[in-house]
Write a structure and sequence with these properties.
193 residues, mainly alpha, Rhopdopsin 7-helix transmembrane proteins, 5 helices, 78% helix
C-alpha cells in the first residue's frame, strides 16, 4: 500500500523542500534602495543572471508543471472512464466520474490561465517590447495578483464540486465556528438576566 499517511507526509515534505530549494535564489534577487525618501526594491543581480533565472522559472515553474499536469490528469481521467465497477450503479458511477473529470479540468485550466499572464509579462520584459513605465508596472503587479489568485480559487472549486471536500472543511473548521457562536451565546445570556 503506497497511499499511507507516512508516504503522504514524506511527499509533502519533499515538495516543500524542493520548492524552498528552487525559490531560495529569489531571496537575493532584489535589494532595497532609498529613492527620494521612499524605499523601493530593485534587482540586485546583473541582467544576464536575472534573465537566466526568469527563463528557468518559466520552464521549471510553468512549462514542465503544465506538461506533468496534462499527462497525469489525462491518465487519471482515462483510468476513471475505462474502469468499470460492476457493483456500482452505472448512473451514480457516471455522475461521480463526471464530477471528478470536471474538477480536474477546472483545476488544471485555472493553473494554466492564472499563471500564464505572469510568465508572459516577464518573458515580454526580456524578449519583447516592454517599456518600463507606470502602465507596465501595474500590468506586472496585476499579473502577480492573478497568479496568486490560483491558490485562492482551488479550494473554492473543490468546495463547489466535491461533497467530500465540503464535509472535510466543515469537520475541520466547523468547531471553530461553533465555538464562536457558543461563546457569544454564553456572554449574551448573563447580560439578559
Amino acid at each position: 500500500e503506497t497511499r499511507t499517511p507516512r508516504n503522504a507526509l514524506t511527499s509533502i515534505s519533499l515538495v516543500w523542500a524542493l520548492s524552498l530549494f528552487f525559490s531560495s535564489p529569489y531571496l537575493s534577487y532584489y535589494q532595497q534602495m532609498d529613492l527620494d525618501g521612499t524605499t523601493v526594491c530593485i534587482p540586485a543581480w546583473n541582467t544576464h543572471h536575472r534573465r537566466a533565472m526568469d527563463v528557468c522559472t518559466f520552464i521549471f515553474g510553468y512549462l514542465i508543471p503544465v506538461l506533468i499536469l496534462g499527462i497525469t490528469y489525462a491518465r487519471t481521467i482515462r483510468y476513471l472512464w475505462t474502469s468499470v465497477d460492476p457493483m456500482q450503479d452505472m448512473s451514480e458511477s457516471r455522475k461521480a466520474k463526471r464530477k471528478v473529470t470536471k474538477m480536474i479540468i477546472i483545476v488544471a485550466a485555472l493553473f494554466c490561465l492564472c499563471w500564464l499572464p505572469h510568465h508572459l509579462v516577464i518573458l515580454c520584459m526580456w524578449f519583447g517590447h516592454f517599456p518600463l513605465n507606470h502602465t507596465t508596472y501595474v500590468l506586472r503587479i496585476l499579473s502577480h495578483l492573478v497568479a496568486y489568485t490560483n491558490s485562492c480559487l482551488n479550494p473554492i472549486v473543490y468546495a463547489l464540486v466535491s461533497k467530500h471536500f465540503r464535509k472535510g472543511f466543515k469537520k475541520v473548521f466547523g468547531c471553530a465556528f461553533r465555538n464562536r457562536v457558543v461563546n457569544r451565546i454564553h456572554t449574551v445570556q448573563p447580560a439578559q438576566t
